[in-house]
Write a structure and sequence with these properties.
Elements (H helix, E strand, L loop, with lengths): L1 H14 L3 E3 L11 E3 L1 H20 L4 E3 L8 H6 L2 H4 L1 E6 L6 E3 H14 L3 H17 L2 H10 L16 E4 L3 E3 L10 E3 L5 H6 L1 H7 L6 E10 L14 E11 L4 H17 L8 E5 L9 E9 L2 E12 L1 H10 L5 E6 L5 E5 L2 E8 H12 E5 L5 E5 L10 E5 L6 H12 L5 E3 L5 H11 L3 E5 L1 H6 L1 E6 L5 E5 H11 L3 H4 L1
The chain binds glycyl-adenosine-5'-phosphate.
Length: about 475
């Protein structure tokens, strides 16, 4: 059932201009997607929701927009050159490549579905232990012991498990081939924040604790990409690094865990759709990590990570660059002594914008029975996030109604996104707006000419009421205020 809903969401996303496969006329490009005319609006709105809550509403958090290309040493210091890899395994018959841990996770899910809870628990334990030890042989042995077959060839003819680095690289400058010219497409936006730590701290006169927030593209050569925009090779992250006094990181970790969960709940999709998942295998930089998972139609999956990153990054950049990435803390401790110089510890919040987009689409997508034998598809988006806020329809194409509708549009288009349409019956036009989540439609009819009123139709209740043209702006503005989400 859920799989069916997911298929519907994916085709809806394409049919209504939210998401298209990249380079589709050339059969697409694996795990790369483009956002269409409605998708780009929804994505921008989601980005704004994050940015406003992080930067605009926190006096001690500022923004940054660092370049995608960075000095190659950044990725040495961050540990990505040596440690940013996934365990992969190939099937010799199909020549298909898989992530070894994901094959095992799929098997665990299969055991659960088949009611084999003990087998699932045993395999989970084995998997956790192998990942924790980075034991590639143990992973292979689990694949053999649990008789996992390649979904394509159906055979168990596997290679050994190897590590596969996920970073994309390219060359900078004219001299192709020279190792010195090698640059990477950033696999996370976080490093742009770390290397600018001093620039921002000094020029912004920031005092610990403070944060730097950034949104932008990240690139990972994922071994397997699946579930639509869930796992992409080019995606967007929204990350915030919060710099704190050493020793206070657990307090701030708990603070951000709760704050981020609240932010998700505010979207109004139901708190039961979210849960925390503590990491068993910590990333190379973390001393504590938790995911906020969302209940996608294909199960609970990671949407956001909150990591206590210690001083790992700033310390390593200090060592490799020779620049002291330190903070001088003039405040006094309980003994009356200044804290002095130290490398701050970092608590990070990191959310994938594309995953947030997918979660939003899945949660908002509804098929509803309306009257006898009639149905509608509606995106119940929070109004402030909707791609179009107000659709404007003249009832007919004549009698001065289009002119009056255009006049209203020309006044309101500066305030919020409006959409004008005069083709087809009103019912059809309403349905098309429901499908993209437009919270309000107004219809200009003959009565409008004499009374200066219009019919406004509400998306969720489908209730229609007559209001003065002069009142439209305020009514819509109240409903789409950022306060509805941020307050
Ligand atoms: N700076 C920390 C970091 O990058 P991560 O858990 O690897 O941590 C953070 O990634 C978030 O980025 C994830 O929670 C997810 O939402 C998103 N993300 C990661 N890989 C992705 C991919 N291949 N496609 C889409 N989103 C991805």
């Amino acid at each position: 059932m859920s799989e069916e809903i997911f298929k519907k969401v994916v085709s809806h996303a394409k049919e209504y201009g939210f998401v298209f496969p990249s380079s589709e006329i050339y059969e697409g490009l694996g795990a790369v997607y483009d956002y269409g005319q409605n998708g780009v609006e929804l994505k921008n709105n989601l980005r704004q929701y994050w940015w406003k809550s992080m930067v605009q509403l926190h006096e001690n958090i500022v923004g940054l927009d660092a370049a995608i290309f960075m000095h190659p040493k950044v990725w040495k210091a961050s540990g990505h050159i040596d440690g940013f890899s996934d365990p992969m395994i190939d099937n010799k018959d199909s020549k298909k490549r898989y992530r070894a841990d994901q094959l095992l996770e799929d098997k665990i899910e299969r055991y659960h579905k088949d009611g084999k809870a003990q087998k699932a628990a045993d395999l989970q334990q084995g998997l956790d232990a192998a990942l924790l030890d980075n034991n590639l042989e143990a992973l292979k042995q689990l694949i053999v012991d649990h008789e996992i077959v390649c979904p394509v060839s159906g055979t168990r003819n596997w290679t050994d498990v190897r590590q596969f680095n996920l970073m994309f690289s390219t060359e900078m400058g004219a001299m192709a081939g020279a190792e010195d010219n090698k640059v990477y497409l950033r696999p996370e936006t976080a490093q742009g924040i770390f290397v600018n730590f001093l620039n921002v701290q000094k020029t912004g006169r920031m005092k610990v604790p403070f944060g730097i927030a950034q949104t932008g593209k990240a690139f990972r050569n994922e071994i397997i990409a699946r579930q639509f925009i869930m796992r992409m090779r080019e995606f967007e992250q929204m990350e915030m690094q919060f710099f704190v006094r050493p020793g206070t990181q657990q307090t701030w970790y708990a603070y951000w865990k709760e704050a981020r969960m609240k932010w998700h709940h505010k979207l109004g999709f139901g708190s039961e759709k979210y849960r925390f998942h503590d990491h068993v295998k910590l990333a190379h930089y973390a001393d504590a990590a938790v995911d906020i998972e969302f209940d996608f139609p294909f199960g609970f999956k990671e949407m956001e990570g909150i990591h206590s990153r210690t001083d790992f990054d700033l310390k390593n950049h200090t060592e490799l660059s020779g620049k002291k990435l330190q903070y001088f803390d003039a405040e006094l401790d309980e003994n009356g002594k200044a804290y002095g110089n130290y490398i701050p510890y970092v608590v990070e919040t990191s959310i994938g914008l594309d995953r947030l987009f997918l979660a939003t689409l899945c949660a908002a997508y509804k098929e509803e029975q309306v009257g006898e034998g009639d149905t509608r598809t509606v995106l119940s988006l929070p109004p402030v996030l909707a791609p179009v806020k107000l659709a404007i329809f003249p009832l007919t194409k004549k009698d001065g109604l289009p002119e009056m509708a255009r006049e209203i549009m020309d006044k309101l288009k500066y305030e919020f996104t409006c959409f004008y349409e005069e083709k087809d019956a009103i019912g059809k036009r309403y349905r098309r707006q429901d499908a993209i989540g437009t919270p309000f439609c107004i219809t200009i009819d003959h009565e409008s000419l004499s009374t200066q009123t219009v019919t406004i139709r509400h998306r969720d209740t489908m209730v229609q009421e007559r209001i003065a043209i002069a009142d439209i702006q305020q009514l819509v503005q109240n409903a789409i205020s950022w306060k509805t989400l941020l307050d």
